[in-house]
Design goal:
By secondary structure, this protein is of the alpha+beta class. The protein has 5 helices and 4 strands; from the N terminus they run H-E-H-E-H-E-E-H-H. It has a 4-stranded mixed sheet, with helices on both faces. Strand 3 and strand 4 form a beta hairpin. The longest helix is centred in the middle third of the chain and has 12 residues.
Amino acid sequence: MDVKNILEKQIKENCIVLYMKGTPEAPMCGFSASAVQMLEACDVEDVATVNVLENQDIREGIKEFSNWPTIPQLYVNGEFVGGADIMREMYQSGELKRLLNGD
């Protein structure tokens, strides 16, 4: 299975997917840590996370897939939401919580 198919499968099979550096328990960059904190603050429990540091093909492939140069990247219901900065703006406005909770 090529990288694009793997990414499509992950995004299709999970309502919320966060591509990040490290794991929620041990983020490996500040942006990934803040993304996890925002998701937790929105009371979201069912989040699939993908540690891009474990697979260089996924790490580069997700950037090409989304046409977005940075990680973390958040997908909700099959749609690319954005990176840490966009998540922060949405979190501050309350939009992120509404999106994640289906409001």
